[in-house]
Amino acid sequence: MFSSSALRAQDPTFSQFYLNPLYVNPAYAGMNEGLRVCANYRNLWGRIPSRFPTYSLSVDAQNLSISSGLGFNIISDTEGEGSLRTQSFGVFYSYRAILIPKHMIFHGGIQTSIVSRRVDWSSLIFSDQIDPVLGVVKPTATPEPNQQNVFYPDFSAGGVLRFNHNTRRKKLLATWTLGAAIHHLVQPNESIIRQRSVLPRRFVGQAGVLIPIRHEVTRNKIAINPQVLYEQQGPMRTFMASVTTLVQPVYAGIGVRNQTPLIPDIRRQDALFISFGLNSNWNKEIFYKMGYSYDLTVSQLKASTAGTHELALVIEFKKFSFNKRLNPKKKTECPDF
Protein backbone atom coordinates (compact mmCIF):
# COMPACT_ATOMS: atom_id res chain seq x y z
CA MET A 1 0.00 0.00 0.00
CA PHE A 2 2.80 2.46 0.83
CA SER A 3 4.44 1.94 -2.56
CA SER A 4 1.21 2.28 -4.53
CA SER A 5 0.30 5.61 -6.08
CA ALA A 6 -3.26 4.55 -6.97
CA LEU A 7 -5.76 1.83 -6.19
CA ARG A 8 -8.18 0.69 -8.89
CA ALA A 9 -11.44 -1.23 -8.78
CA GLN A 10 -14.74 -1.52 -10.65
CA ASP A 11 -18.33 -2.66 -10.27
CA PRO A 12 -18.96 -6.43 -10.31
CA THR A 13 -19.01 -7.96 -13.78
CA PHE A 14 -21.15 -10.99 -14.67
CA SER A 15 -19.95 -13.49 -17.26
CA GLN A 16 -23.57 -14.46 -17.99
CA PHE A 17 -24.51 -10.82 -18.50
CA TYR A 18 -27.28 -11.87 -20.90
CA LEU A 19 -29.07 -13.51 -17.93
CA ASN A 20 -28.91 -10.32 -15.85
CA PRO A 21 -30.06 -7.70 -18.38
CA LEU A 22 -31.23 -4.96 -15.99
CA TYR A 23 -27.78 -4.83 -14.40
CA VAL A 24 -26.27 -4.22 -17.83
CA ASN A 25 -28.75 -1.63 -19.10
CA PRO A 26 -31.92 -0.14 -17.53
CA ALA A 27 -33.53 -0.01 -20.98
CA TYR A 28 -34.08 -3.78 -20.79
CA ALA A 29 -36.90 -3.26 -18.28
CA GLY A 30 -40.07 -4.62 -19.88
CA MET A 31 -38.33 -5.43 -23.16
CA ASN A 32 -40.05 -8.81 -23.49
CA GLU A 33 -43.71 -9.65 -22.95
CA GLY A 34 -45.03 -10.68 -19.55
CA LEU A 35 -43.18 -10.62 -16.25
CA ARG A 36 -39.55 -11.71 -15.79
CA VAL A 37 -37.66 -12.66 -12.62
CA CYS A 38 -33.83 -12.94 -12.67
CA ALA A 39 -31.71 -14.29 -9.81
CA ASN A 40 -27.90 -14.29 -10.10
CA TYR A 41 -25.01 -15.32 -7.87
CA ARG A 42 -21.30 -14.83 -8.58
CA ASN A 43 -18.44 -16.08 -6.39
CA LEU A 44 -15.27 -14.37 -7.58
CA TRP A 45 -11.90 -16.06 -6.91
CA GLY A 46 -13.03 -18.71 -4.43
CA ARG A 47 -9.54 -19.66 -3.19
CA ILE A 48 -8.62 -16.14 -2.05
CA PRO A 49 -9.55 -15.64 1.66
CA SER A 50 -11.06 -12.23 0.92
CA ARG A 51 -13.86 -13.52 -1.32
CA PHE A 52 -16.11 -11.33 -3.43
CA PRO A 53 -19.62 -12.86 -3.54
CA THR A 54 -22.28 -10.88 -5.41
CA TYR A 55 -26.05 -11.49 -5.31
CA SER A 56 -28.57 -9.94 -7.66
CA LEU A 57 -32.37 -10.19 -7.91
CA SER A 58 -34.43 -8.29 -10.47
CA VAL A 59 -38.07 -8.23 -11.56
CA ASP A 60 -39.44 -6.41 -14.59
CA ALA A 61 -42.68 -6.40 -16.58
CA GLN A 62 -44.08 -4.99 -19.78
CA ASN A 63 -47.02 -2.58 -19.88
CA LEU A 64 -47.97 -2.05 -23.52
CA SER A 65 -50.96 0.15 -22.67
CA ILE A 66 -48.52 2.94 -21.87
CA SER A 67 -45.67 1.63 -24.10
CA SER A 68 -43.50 1.19 -21.04
CA GLY A 69 -41.60 -1.25 -18.90
CA LEU A 70 -41.31 -1.25 -15.11
CA GLY A 71 -38.98 -3.09 -12.77
CA PHE A 72 -36.77 -3.16 -9.70
CA ASN A 73 -33.59 -4.87 -8.57
CA ILE A 74 -31.71 -5.66 -5.37
CA ILE A 75 -27.92 -6.13 -5.36
CA SER A 76 -25.62 -7.17 -2.52
CA ASP A 77 -21.84 -7.20 -2.92
CA THR A 78 -19.34 -8.19 -0.20
CA GLU A 79 -15.60 -7.49 -0.03
CA GLY A 80 -12.79 -8.05 2.45
CA GLU A 81 -14.09 -11.23 4.15
CA GLY A 82 -17.35 -9.46 4.91
CA SER A 83 -15.77 -6.26 6.23
CA LEU A 84 -17.25 -4.08 3.48
CA ARG A 85 -20.76 -4.63 2.14
CA THR A 86 -22.55 -2.67 -0.56
CA GLN A 87 -26.31 -3.07 -1.02
CA SER A 88 -28.64 -1.24 -3.37
CA PHE A 89 -32.32 -1.11 -4.27
CA GLY A 90 -33.22 0.34 -7.66
CA VAL A 91 -36.39 1.01 -9.64
CA PHE A 92 -36.56 1.08 -13.44
CA TYR A 93 -38.69 2.74 -16.07
CA SER A 94 -38.35 2.32 -19.83
CA TYR A 95 -40.27 3.70 -22.77
CA ARG A 96 -40.86 1.75 -25.99
CA ALA A 97 -40.84 3.45 -29.39
CA ILE A 98 -41.88 1.34 -32.40
CA LEU A 99 -39.73 2.49 -35.30
CA ILE A 100 -40.85 -0.14 -37.83
CA PRO A 101 -43.89 -2.25 -36.84
CA LYS A 102 -42.93 -5.88 -36.18
CA HIS A 103 -39.32 -5.23 -37.18
CA MET A 104 -37.63 -2.52 -35.12
CA ILE A 105 -38.09 -1.01 -31.66
CA PHE A 106 -36.12 1.33 -29.41
CA HIS A 107 -36.19 1.20 -25.62
CA GLY A 108 -34.90 4.07 -23.50
CA GLY A 109 -34.62 3.45 -19.78
CA ILE A 110 -33.64 5.09 -16.50
CA GLN A 111 -32.77 3.70 -13.08
CA THR A 112 -32.96 5.35 -9.66
CA SER A 113 -31.31 3.58 -6.73
CA ILE A 114 -30.63 3.96 -3.04
CA VAL A 115 -27.22 2.54 -2.11
CA SER A 116 -25.92 1.54 1.31
CA ARG A 117 -22.22 0.91 2.07
CA ARG A 118 -21.30 -0.45 5.49
CA VAL A 119 -17.97 -1.40 7.05
CA ASP A 120 -17.61 -3.79 9.98
CA TRP A 121 -14.97 -1.93 12.00
CA SER A 122 -14.62 -4.76 14.54
CA SER A 123 -13.31 -7.12 11.84
CA LEU A 124 -10.51 -4.78 10.74
CA ILE A 125 -6.91 -5.45 11.87
CA PHE A 126 -4.40 -2.60 12.19
CA SER A 127 -0.64 -2.88 12.28
CA ASP A 128 -0.33 -1.81 15.94
CA GLN A 129 -2.43 -4.83 16.99
CA ILE A 130 0.11 -7.36 15.66
CA ASP A 131 2.80 -8.89 17.85
CA PRO A 132 5.61 -10.47 15.78
CA VAL A 133 5.44 -13.64 17.89
CA LEU A 134 1.92 -13.93 19.32
CA GLY A 135 -0.03 -12.47 16.41
CA VAL A 136 -3.06 -10.20 16.82
CA VAL A 137 -3.18 -9.65 20.58
CA LYS A 138 -2.95 -5.89 21.13
CA PRO A 139 -5.66 -3.20 21.11
CA THR A 140 -5.44 -0.57 18.40
CA ALA A 141 -4.93 3.12 18.91
CA THR A 142 -6.89 3.89 15.73
CA PRO A 143 -10.12 5.63 16.77
CA GLU A 144 -13.40 4.16 15.59
CA PRO A 145 -15.34 6.53 13.30
CA ASN A 146 -18.65 7.98 14.42
CA GLN A 147 -20.44 6.25 11.55
CA GLN A 148 -19.76 2.96 9.79
CA ASN A 149 -22.19 3.28 6.91
CA VAL A 150 -23.26 5.73 4.26
CA PHE A 151 -26.39 6.08 2.09
CA TYR A 152 -26.52 7.87 -1.25
CA PRO A 153 -28.75 8.04 -4.36
CA ASP A 154 -27.51 6.72 -7.69
CA PHE A 155 -28.80 7.10 -11.26
CA SER A 156 -28.30 5.28 -14.57
CA ALA A 157 -29.65 5.60 -18.09
CA GLY A 158 -29.44 3.65 -21.32
CA GLY A 159 -30.93 2.73 -24.65
CA VAL A 160 -31.44 -0.49 -26.61
CA LEU A 161 -32.22 -0.89 -30.31
CA ARG A 162 -33.63 -4.24 -31.44
CA PHE A 163 -34.47 -5.22 -35.00
CA ASN A 164 -35.11 -8.28 -37.16
CA HIS A 165 -33.82 -9.29 -40.55
CA ASN A 166 -34.54 -12.29 -42.73
CA THR A 167 -32.05 -15.15 -42.73
CA ARG A 168 -31.30 -17.34 -45.70
CA ARG A 169 -33.91 -19.81 -44.55
CA LYS A 170 -37.50 -18.86 -45.21
CA LYS A 171 -39.71 -17.73 -42.31
CA LEU A 172 -36.72 -17.35 -39.96
CA LEU A 173 -35.78 -13.98 -38.50
CA ALA A 174 -32.44 -13.12 -36.89
CA THR A 175 -32.75 -10.60 -34.05
CA TRP A 176 -30.05 -7.97 -33.53
CA THR A 177 -29.60 -6.10 -30.25
CA LEU A 178 -27.48 -2.95 -29.84
CA GLY A 179 -27.31 -1.19 -26.49
CA ALA A 180 -25.43 1.47 -24.54
CA ALA A 181 -25.73 2.66 -20.94
CA ILE A 182 -24.12 5.03 -18.44
CA HIS A 183 -24.17 4.07 -14.76
CA HIS A 184 -23.48 6.36 -11.77
CA LEU A 185 -24.45 9.45 -13.73
CA VAL A 186 -23.89 11.92 -10.89
CA GLN A 187 -20.73 10.15 -9.62
CA PRO A 188 -21.85 9.94 -5.96
CA ASN A 189 -19.47 10.28 -3.04
CA GLU A 190 -19.35 6.83 -1.40
CA SER A 191 -16.87 7.60 1.41
CA ILE A 192 -17.94 6.13 4.75
CA ILE A 193 -15.62 8.31 6.87
CA ARG A 194 -16.74 11.60 5.32
CA GLN A 195 -13.78 11.97 3.00
CA ARG A 196 -13.97 12.44 -0.78
CA SER A 197 -14.34 9.15 -2.69
CA VAL A 198 -16.16 9.63 -6.01
CA LEU A 199 -17.65 6.58 -7.71
CA PRO A 200 -16.60 6.83 -11.40
CA ARG A 201 -19.16 6.48 -14.16
CA ARG A 202 -19.42 3.04 -15.77
CA PHE A 203 -19.93 3.05 -19.55
CA VAL A 204 -21.39 -0.09 -21.13
CA GLY A 205 -21.75 -1.04 -24.78
CA GLN A 206 -23.35 -4.27 -25.96
CA ALA A 207 -24.11 -5.99 -29.26
CA GLY A 208 -25.50 -9.41 -30.10
CA VAL A 209 -27.52 -11.37 -32.60
CA LEU A 210 -29.81 -14.38 -32.14
CA ILE A 211 -29.61 -16.52 -35.29
CA PRO A 212 -32.23 -19.28 -35.55
CA ILE A 213 -31.14 -22.41 -37.39
CA ARG A 214 -34.33 -24.38 -36.91
CA HIS A 215 -37.61 -23.18 -35.46
CA GLU A 216 -40.22 -25.81 -36.29
CA VAL A 217 -42.94 -26.24 -33.67
CA THR A 218 -42.74 -30.03 -33.74
CA ARG A 219 -38.93 -30.20 -33.41
CA ASN A 220 -36.31 -28.84 -31.03
CA LYS A 221 -35.32 -25.24 -31.70
CA ILE A 222 -31.70 -24.59 -32.64
CA ALA A 223 -30.07 -21.15 -32.49
CA ILE A 224 -26.68 -19.44 -32.21
CA ASN A 225 -26.18 -16.30 -30.13
CA PRO A 226 -22.83 -14.43 -30.39
CA GLN A 227 -22.52 -11.38 -28.11
CA VAL A 228 -19.93 -8.78 -27.10
CA LEU A 229 -19.85 -6.48 -24.07
CA TYR A 230 -17.55 -3.53 -23.38
CA GLU A 231 -17.28 -1.83 -19.97
CA GLN A 232 -15.19 1.13 -18.90
CA GLN A 233 -15.07 2.58 -15.39
CA GLY A 234 -12.30 5.06 -14.72
CA PRO A 235 -9.04 3.50 -15.94
CA MET A 236 -10.51 -0.02 -15.88
CA ARG A 237 -11.58 -1.46 -19.24
CA THR A 238 -13.07 -4.87 -19.95
CA PHE A 239 -14.07 -6.50 -23.23
CA MET A 240 -16.03 -9.76 -23.30
CA ALA A 241 -17.00 -11.88 -26.30
CA SER A 242 -19.05 -15.06 -26.13
CA VAL A 243 -20.88 -17.50 -28.40
CA THR A 244 -23.80 -19.56 -27.10
CA THR A 245 -25.46 -22.44 -28.96
CA LEU A 246 -29.00 -23.53 -28.11
CA VAL A 247 -30.37 -26.96 -28.95
CA GLN A 248 -33.54 -26.74 -26.95
CA PRO A 249 -33.80 -27.49 -24.07
CA VAL A 250 -30.04 -27.21 -23.42
CA TYR A 251 -27.45 -24.59 -24.31
CA ALA A 252 -23.68 -24.24 -24.01
CA GLY A 253 -21.30 -21.38 -24.63
CA ILE A 254 -17.71 -20.22 -24.48
CA GLY A 255 -16.23 -16.76 -24.09
CA VAL A 256 -13.20 -14.66 -23.26
CA ARG A 257 -12.59 -11.59 -21.11
CA ASN A 258 -9.82 -9.24 -22.19
CA GLN A 259 -8.36 -6.23 -20.36
CA THR A 260 -7.22 -4.75 -23.68
CA PRO A 261 -10.50 -3.78 -25.40
CA LEU A 262 -11.06 -4.85 -28.99
CA ILE A 263 -7.40 -5.84 -29.48
CA PRO A 264 -6.60 -9.55 -28.96
CA ASP A 265 -3.53 -9.76 -26.74
CA ILE A 266 -2.72 -13.00 -24.92
CA ARG A 267 -0.64 -11.05 -22.40
CA ARG A 268 -3.72 -9.10 -21.29
CA GLN A 269 -6.25 -11.93 -21.17
CA ASP A 270 -8.12 -12.03 -17.87
CA ALA A 271 -10.23 -15.19 -18.14
CA LEU A 272 -11.77 -17.80 -20.37
CA PHE A 273 -15.28 -18.87 -19.40
CA ILE A 274 -17.64 -21.66 -20.28
CA SER A 275 -21.37 -21.80 -19.63
CA PHE A 276 -24.16 -24.33 -19.98
CA GLY A 277 -27.73 -24.75 -18.80
CA LEU A 278 -31.38 -25.32 -19.62
CA ASN A 279 -33.58 -23.09 -21.75
CA SER A 280 -37.14 -24.35 -22.10
CA ASN A 281 -40.84 -23.99 -21.27
CA TRP A 282 -42.31 -25.21 -18.01
CA ASN A 283 -45.71 -25.01 -19.70
CA LYS A 284 -47.39 -22.75 -22.27
CA GLU A 285 -47.27 -19.77 -19.90
CA ILE A 286 -43.99 -20.15 -18.01
CA PHE A 287 -40.54 -20.05 -19.62
CA TYR A 288 -37.31 -20.63 -17.68
CA LYS A 289 -33.53 -20.52 -18.05
CA MET A 290 -31.05 -22.09 -15.63
CA GLY A 291 -27.36 -21.39 -16.23
CA TYR A 292 -23.94 -22.06 -14.75
CA SER A 293 -20.61 -20.59 -15.82
CA TYR A 294 -17.02 -21.07 -14.75
CA ASP A 295 -14.29 -18.49 -15.31
CA LEU A 296 -10.82 -19.93 -15.76
CA THR A 297 -8.35 -17.21 -14.77
CA VAL A 298 -5.49 -17.00 -17.28
CA SER A 299 -3.77 -13.87 -16.00
CA GLN A 300 -0.88 -13.91 -13.51
CA LEU A 301 -3.45 -14.60 -10.76
CA LYS A 302 -4.31 -18.03 -12.17
CA ALA A 303 -2.36 -20.02 -9.57
CA SER A 304 -4.13 -18.29 -6.68
CA THR A 305 -7.82 -17.87 -7.52
CA ALA A 306 -9.35 -21.31 -8.28
CA GLY A 307 -11.51 -19.52 -10.84
CA THR A 308 -14.97 -17.99 -10.53
CA HIS A 309 -18.37 -19.66 -10.32
CA GLU A 310 -21.65 -18.12 -11.41
CA LEU A 311 -25.28 -19.29 -11.20
CA ALA A 312 -28.32 -17.76 -12.87
CA LEU A 313 -32.05 -18.44 -12.93
CA VAL A 314 -34.54 -16.61 -15.14
CA ILE A 315 -38.31 -17.24 -15.05
CA GLU A 316 -40.69 -15.53 -17.47
CA PHE A 317 -44.47 -15.48 -17.02
CA LYS A 318 -45.72 -14.82 -20.53
CA LYS A 319 -49.39 -14.28 -19.66
CA PHE A 320 -48.79 -11.62 -17.01
CA SER A 321 -50.49 -8.34 -17.86
CA PHE A 322 -51.14 -5.04 -16.11
CA ASN A 323 -54.40 -4.66 -18.02
CA LYS A 324 -56.63 -7.69 -17.63
CA ARG A 325 -59.66 -5.76 -18.87
CA LEU A 326 -58.25 -4.87 -22.27
CA ASN A 327 -60.02 -6.35 -25.27
CA PRO A 328 -58.13 -9.61 -26.00
CA LYS A 329 -58.83 -9.21 -29.72
CA LYS A 330 -57.03 -5.89 -29.84
CA LYS A 331 -53.55 -6.33 -31.25
CA THR A 332 -50.59 -4.04 -30.69
CA GLU A 333 -48.15 -3.58 -33.54
CA CYS A 334 -44.96 -4.74 -31.83
CA PRO A 335 -41.92 -6.58 -33.13
CA ASP A 336 -42.05 -10.34 -32.82
CA PHE A 337 -38.83 -11.47 -31.07
Model description:
The protein has 337 residues and is mostly beta strands. The chain has one domain (18-119, 147-317): monomeric porin ompg (Porin). Helix content is 2%, strand content 54%. It contains two helices and 16 strands. The strands form two sheets. Strands 1-2-3-4-5-8-9-10-11-12-13-14-15-16 form a 14-stranded antiparallel barrel. A two-stranded antiparallel ribbon has the order 6-7. A hairpin with a 7-residue loop joins strand 1 and strand 2. The longest helix is centred in the N-terminal third of the chain and has 4 residues, at 21-24. It is globular.
Features:
single chain; 337 residues; mainly beta; Porin; 14-stranded antiparallel barrel; two-stranded antiparallel ribbon; 2 helices; 16 strands; 2% helix; globular; disordered C terminus
Large-scale geometry: globular
SSE order, one letter for each helix or strand? HEEEEEEEEEEEEEEEHE
Order of strands across the widest beta sheet? 1-2-3-4-5-8-9-10-11-12-13-14-15-16
- Distance between the ends: 51 Å
Low-confidence runs of at least 5 consecutive residues: 325-337
Write the CATH architecture name.
Answer: Beta Barrel
Mean pLDDT: 84
What's the helix count?
2
| Residues in helix, % | under 10%
What about the largest sheet?
A: 14 strands, antiparallel, barrel
